């Protein structure tokens, strides 16, 4: 657990499997979401599936130990789970975008996935919008490119990394139910820390709306937080070292399908016209998209394997852009670790057993009004870093990020751009 620099909530559970704040084997993070899919599958089926029941303890063991996670993940994906009814998965930005995607993709057919976003899309009204009250960035927007990805009577599966009070899930259920009522909701998370009072609020909403809300988690318990942390110094620091590290820019826009009709406006009012990638889930994906995105991921991984220059490689996703970089990282070979930049300001300390030891801050490449952070980077830990950006950004907007990675942290910095500046395949 770490301290947040946030007056609304003073603590943060720092996951060892999520791939957000701490570096992990990318297969371990993919497996954590896929494990939730098994729990959901078991919840939805009255009769036990022997293959699922046999695999589940093996997956939990792999997640706990960190060993054989790649074999466990590949075994699970071969099961090709089929839900008894259509499912709509919604992952919460930014931390659970990859978690929700990996949970969704374990289902072979009959499911769709969309994740909420902090981006504001020009000329489009969100399909749903809600607030995350404790967050430093409270507004969530959901832009599903097809109504069926949310509308209808089929169950919705909400995915978050951890549930403390459950208010975020209740807020989105209210927002969905107001426009697209249905009877069944699932709330999936790695951790469920709801108190008895918070559990009762779920029951009260069930009775009020005439619905069922089924929580699913890998770990369940209760916590009690007392006092306030003494945050006497900044949560993150820019690199103060001056050593110059070579920067290699890798363009991969020709490998991915794009959404050229989606543009965003940042917090300063600047419009960004560079296209988003179709397969991220920001605008919704289904089983047909999975095949195309998997092909692009395999091509990208083959290209980047030829660019590796060391035996210990860090791959960094950026903000919401987590799942595709995570999948690419998993195919880069041995000695690869993955995590992501974040908007979350987390307190750093070198006291024993505290998880966030160092921090670097920089301007978000996609929105200069937003500060990003990356944690636990120290000289000598890695030979090189691959930083993944979903789309092109204006010249100069990468300077702050690149500067934060200089100073002897890596012998080589690779900036991987997954979308072209203009042109490409529109779908």
From TrEMBL:
It comes from the Bacteria. Pfam families: PRTase_2, TRSP. Gene3D superfamilies: 3.40.50.2020. Residues 280-405 form the TRSP domain. Residues 1-222 form the Orotate phosphoribosyltransferase-like domain. InterPro entries: PRTase-like (IPR029057), PRTase_2 (IPR041688), PRTase_dom (IPR000836), TRSP_dom (IPR022537), UCP020967 (IPR011214). This is Phosphoribosyltransferase.
């Amino acid at each position: 657990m770490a301290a947040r620099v946030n007056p609304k909530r003073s603590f943060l559970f720092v996951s060892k499997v999520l791939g957000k704040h701490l570096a992990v084997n990318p297969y371990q993070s993919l497996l954590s979401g896929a494990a939730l899919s098994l729990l959901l599958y078991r919840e939805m089926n009255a009769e036990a599936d022997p293959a699922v029941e046999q695999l589940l303890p093996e997956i939990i063991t792999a997640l706990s130990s960190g060993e054989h996670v790649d074999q466990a993940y590949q075994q699970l994906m071969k099961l090709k789970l089929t839900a008894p009814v259509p499912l709509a998965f919604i992952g919460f930005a930014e931390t659970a975008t990859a978690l929700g995607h990996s949970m969704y993709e374990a289902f072979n057919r009959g499911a769709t996935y969309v994740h909420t976003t902090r981006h504001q899309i020009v000329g489009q009204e969100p399909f749903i919008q809600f607030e995350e009250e404790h967050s430093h960035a409270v507004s969530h927007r959901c832009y599903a490119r097809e109504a069926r990805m949310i509308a209808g009577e089929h169950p919705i599966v909400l995915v978050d990394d951890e549930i403390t009070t459950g208010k975020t899930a209740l807020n989105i259920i209210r927002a969905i139910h107001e426009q697209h009522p249905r009877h069944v909701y699932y709330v999936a998370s790695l951790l469920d820390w709801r108190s008895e009072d918070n559990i009762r609020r779920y029951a009260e909403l069930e009775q009020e709306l005439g619905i069922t809300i089924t929580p699913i988690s890998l770990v369940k318990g209760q916590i009690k937080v007392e006092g306030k942390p003494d945050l006497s110094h900044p949560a993150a620091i820019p690199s103060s070292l001056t050593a110059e590290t070579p920067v290699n820019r890798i363009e991969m826009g020709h490998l991915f399908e794009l959404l050229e009709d989606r543009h965003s406006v940042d917090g300063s009012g600047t419009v960004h016209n560079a296209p988003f990638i179709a397969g991220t889930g920001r605008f919704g994906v289904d089983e047909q998209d999975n095949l195309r995105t998997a092909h692009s991921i395999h091509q990208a991984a083959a290209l980047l394997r030829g660019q590796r220059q060391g035996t210990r490689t860090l791959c960094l996703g950026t903000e919401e852009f987590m799942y595709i970089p995570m999948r690419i990282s998993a195919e880069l070979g041995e000695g690869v670790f993955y995590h992501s930049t974040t908007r979350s300001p987390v307190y750093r300390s070198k006291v024993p057993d505290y998880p966030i030891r160092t921090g670097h801050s920089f301007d978000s490449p996609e929105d200069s009004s937003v500060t990003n952070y990356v944690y636990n980077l120290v000289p000598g830990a890695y030979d090189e870093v691959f930083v993944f950006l979903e789309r092109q950004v204006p010249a100069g907007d990468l300077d702050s990020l690149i500067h934060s990675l200089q100073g002897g942290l890596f012998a080589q910095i690779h900036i991987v751009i997954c979308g072209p500046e203009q042109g490409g395949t529109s779908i």
